[in-house]
Specification:
The chain is α+β, with helices and mostly antiparallel strands. It has two domains: 33 residues, no CATH class; 223 residues, Lipoprotein localisation LolA/LolB/LppX (outer membrane lipoprotein receptor (LolB), chain A, Clam). 25% of the residues lie in helices and 40% in strands. The chain has seven helices and 13 strands. The chain is globular and about 55 Å long. The two termini are 41 Å apart.
């Protein structure tokens, strides 16, 4: 067994060295990965500040949810998401795919979740700002807005809240666009983000790995397009119940229930 383990370890080291030689990826030591590297920190702050200064935008994404079955096999489910934001207090999100069929509406006063397929909806009074409403939706309703971490006006603080270390991997190409590839480690999840190079540091891809769950499933957001000057109307953010739509109540969670998410 000792010889087998020694040969296996040698094989792993050789594979890593070959990959480094081929891809040009830097070999990080533990000391190098402690904390966030300055370039990774700079790029993440630059992206966060840029997004916070956008008064309105529309972003179209393809979200892929990975699920690990009891057998250990991984399966993926795709969900296109279309999000429209008008700061400081408007949000509209539509997602329809393998898992979700939902529409979100936030008009500065109320938050509504509508399921077109089942024709039912729930509406609740919401805080006066988008940031507060995102917190309220998560903490009180166990409801997550698509790409919520990137929507906050202080996205940097939200993204780095649980970060142990962060690395600048290098330049990469995502859907034909040159991007800065960053990788971060946290206590519960690891995540990567690809940020467009140039004067518009927009996120182009976002991958979250739940590392302590069996199989380490991933959630991937691939951003298809950004519209930084969309034509918006107030009616886009206001929910009008369709004919025969059934109104239901949100299930408010207790503190104990929320801890089990």
């Amino acid at each position: 067994m000792r010889d087998v383990n020694r040969h296996s370890s040698l094989f792993v080291v050789m594979v890593v060295l070959v990959l480094i030689a081929i891809t040009g990826l830097p070999l990080f030591s533990y000391a190098d990965s402690a904390g966030i590297e300055p370039k990774a920190d700079q790029m993440l702050r630059k992206m966060s500040d840029y997004l916070a200064n956008l008064k309105q935008f529309r972003v179209q994404t393809e979200n892929t949810l990975e699920v690990v079955l009891i057998s250990g096999q991984k399966v993926q489910f795709d969900n296109p998401v279309d999000v429209t934001i008008k700061r400081p207090n408007k949000l509209r999100a539509d997602r329809k795919g393998d898992v979700f069929d939902q529409e979100f509406y936030y008009d500065g006063k109320t938050l509504t979740l509508y399921s077109p397929g089942k024709n039912y909806y729930a509406t609740v009074q919401a805080p006066p700002t988008l940031d507060e409403t995102l917190d309220f939706a998560t903490e009180a309703l166990d409801l997550y807005a698509p790409g919520g971490d990137l929507i906050y006006s202080n996205a940097y603080n939200i993204l780095t809240e649980d970060v142990i270390s962060g690395s600048y991997i290098g330049l990469s190409v995502v859907s034909g666009v040159k991007c800065h590839h960053l990788a971060f480690r946290g206590n519960e999840v690891d995540w990567q983000i690809w940020i467009e190079d140039g004067d518009k540091p927009l996120p182009k891809k976002f991958v979250i790995t739940t590392k302590w769950m069996t199989g380490a499933p991933q959630f991937t957001v691939s951003i298809k397009s950004w519209n930084l000057s969309p034509k918006l109307t107030e009616s886009m953010f206001t929910f009008v119940p369709p004919k025969d739509a059934q109104k239901i109540d949100f299930i408010r969670l207790t503190g104990a229930g929320m801890s089990q998410r």
